[in-house]
Amino acid sequence: MINYKKAIIKMILSMKNDDYLFKSYHYILAKYRREKGGAS
Q1: CA-to-CA distance for 24 and 40, rounded, in angstroms?
Q2: CA dihedral defined by 2, 13, 17, 34, rounded to 10 degrees?
Q3: Which site in 10, 24, 27, 37 is 20 to 30 Å from 18, CA atoms measured?
Q4: Within the chain, where are the H helices?
Q5: Each residue of 17-34: b (16+ CB within 10 Å) or e?
Q6: What pLDDT, on a 0 to 100 scale, did the predictor assign at position 40?
Q7: 3-state secondary structure of 16
Q8: How many CB atoms neighbour CB 11 within 10 A?
């Protein structure tokens, strides 16, 4: 999970398109919530 977060941060820092960042953030947040909810 830590490597996953590092990869996301690296990808975000390399991108400058705000719309892409906004969509990616919501996709990642939704995925994280699903994984956390499923693990509980």
Answers
A1: 24
A2: 10
A3: 37
A4: 2-14, 18-39
A5: eeeeeeeeeeeeeeeeee
A6: 47
A7: coil
A8: 13
Q: Which amino acid is at 35?
A: E
Tokens linked to 35 = 């994984």
Q: Please state the domain extents for the chain.
A: 2-39
Q: Which two tokens stand for residue 36?
A: 């956390």
Tens of pLDDT along the chain (40 residues) come to 678 888 877 877 776 667 777 888 888 888 888 888 765 4
CA separation for the pair 12, 3 (Å, rounded)? 14
